[in-house]
Amino acid sequence: MKYLLLIYGNQEKWASIPAAEWPEAIARQDAFNRKYRATGELIGAYGLADEIQARLVRREDGQPVVTDGPYLETKEYIASFYLLDCESEERALRIAADMPFADVDPVEFWPIMHEAKPDL
Amino acid sequence: MTGPVAAGRGEVEGLLRELAPQILTALVRRYGQFHLCEDACQEALLAAAQQWPSGGLPDNPRGWLITVAARRLMDQVRSEQSRRAREELVAAATPPSELLGPPPDAEPADRDDSLALLFGCCHPDLSSPSQIALTLRAVGGLSTAQIAAAFGVPEATMAQRISRAKQTISGTGFDFSLPSGAERTERLRAVLHVLYLVFNEGYTASAGDALTVPALSEEAIRLTRWLHRLLPDDGEVTGLLALMLLADARRPARTLPDGSLVPLADQDRQMWDQAKIAEGTALISAALPRGEVGAYQLQAAIAAVHDEAKTMADTDWTQILGLYDLLELTAPNPFTALNRAVAVAMVRGPEAGLEVIAALEADKRMARHHRLIAARAHLRELAGDTGTAAADYLDAARRAPSLPERRYLALQASRLAGRGYPESRPATEVPDRHSGHGEPRYRQCAGTARTAANTVAGYGGLVSELDNLRNGAEQFAAKEGGAGATGQVRRRRRPARSAEPGQGQGQYGGGQDQGQGQYGEEQQGY
Questions:
Q1: Does domain A2-111 bear CATH number 3.30.70.1060?
Q2: CB-hemisphere CA count at 13 Å for A37?
């Protein structure tokens, strides 16, 4: 069963982290990624670009229409996402709780329906 | 002059998969070092798959494969850093004649070895996904890419799982001594569970390109058939094979081309595979009277009763209910109880079934499970209570873990709400409870073996599938050193401050994925 983990944040929050702490933070996240790639459970870990590079895309008259995004009202937006494939929800929840900053901010956890087997 | 024997790709494929466990066991027995031998074996199989279809089969395919695999093993050992010591080990352990392969008339005396290999791949130190992956590769002879495709994960992810599993096995010291007594029973149970999960994984998958995405249910049947040949007297091995055949027989009717589910009641029974039904029925009929009745045999018997019914209304629910009574005795499990509730409804009426379900709702985790809610929806509809049935279907749809189920359940909710889906069907008819069904022979056979069933339940030879999954999650974390966090997952409701200690502590955490022990025909059966 596959699961999606989402980390939210914004510039203000990240700017508040002292520069000296970043190397350790990155190292902890890298260690998490290595650990669960090695167990064969982390399919991918993806950090997203800055919000100024995000776009909203529509189709009008068959043509793409692109505006800057995300929506201005969004206080926090997706910073990174992680794709897991685990034998149980229990296990996936444990991995989510093992995210380096899960003790500071919650990790959003979504079961993925596509490719899930009907429960027969 | 005898040229090379021409061989079709399919023929080569089948032969290689048949030989794969033999080659690996021969190598491991000779050189130890499971990890390296497994890689070498895969490379030899790959070489054969590339060369044989065009170049023809060698005179002694098995000898050819062992020779090539042994050479690859030596290449690997050489290229590894600790060259000299290992090189000498391999060289010393290899009589030169061995590299030529055994003579064609040599007895391939590795029946037991292959069985030991299967037991090793299902080692209790491994998590379920690792057991499955390793079994498919080492015993099934599938490539990492094929297994990854079948499970919908990248090849690198699957390679990590297999590599880790092999390291775990190497760490425990792979040996070919088969366990005996109670441990053997326990280990065989793990083997059957792995085969069952492989089957389940492929149960509804649509047929893809057979070369890239193997049909896992067919592979599970092939391996279980092979296991049945090795252990023809084991009732549960026979039962599992029968269960797979009887369930797989309905596959052509189970899904529409777009992937949507067709419930048992609506399936075109003309599309069921009669050859598989006949084989499964014969197997289970032979196994049941022998006395050692277990959960797989009982599930197979239930599947056989369904498969023998010409129409849904012909179904012998009385016999099915009797079998569920035995199953609850043998392997108690909330999902068995749920299936039984539906059988109760079909025999004694929907209200009686709803009473059984109400008792199951005492468990909060079960009360929120989509399968219970879907079953309740079905029975409420049968009882004529369409309003609450529609609400239940909708609730079940929201909780369903997979897309086909969610769509199916949402469609039922819409149908009851009168939103007019053209393909909607009327509520399943409650069959005439006294229609002549002939002899309830499975129930009778199983009944004579009732004492045996008690014995099985008594020594706990068959823990519920649910327990397996629950324990599996723990094992994964503890045994493979995967998780740092091994504490309990506490669940709180929003708002986060109103803690509800003890609620839903993941007891059924593994239950949503797969293999809950039933195919759930009864639960508004798909």
A1: yes
A2: 12
